[in-house]
Amino acid sequence: MAIGHGHFVFGGARAGRRCGGPEAVRRVMGFDESGLALVVTLAATVVLLAVSATLVAVARNEYRLAALAQTSRQALAVAEAGLERGLFELRRDSNWTDATGATALSSGPSWSPLCLAPDAAPPCDEARAVDVPFPGTDPLGTFTVELAKIGADPPLGCDATTCMRLRASGRVRGSARVVQAVARRVADAAVEVQEWREVWKAE
Prior knowledge:
Helices cover 37% and strands 25% of the residues. The chain is α+β, with helices and mostly antiparallel strands. It is elongated, with a radius of gyration of 40 Å.
């Protein structure tokens, strides 16, 4: 420090150098570049982790939806196989009104299980088409087939003795699909199918 003309004069640049210069000022004022870099790095890491978690969640959801779509298609195929089995059993049953064979448990317009034995008689406990594994070896799922006699509003050309309603549900790993049709006997061993359709719930 020097005195001149009544004023205090500091050492100028040399004093600044002794105080540490701009770096020291930044430290005193709280500006630490290394700390700022750490904060930026942590923020970028958090953003990358969030993006990665979102991508993983999207991928898992797409995989789950694809798996559900596949099992749903398989359940429909199993249900259709069950309906075909029902038609086969109805062709083997020459009389749909004698309470034997495929229609042994069908006594009215309400749904009842199909019987899988041609000589079945009530209660048909051993041959009910309920939760039948399909295919028989290495099953993909199960089907249930039910019958109901034609009610008060029969399809064209049907009556209680010539037509039966069939409903088959297929299940594969939590997915279920249901198909329904009307079988009409046109000759002793011939059966034609009417109104084959999928239903979204049991009707």
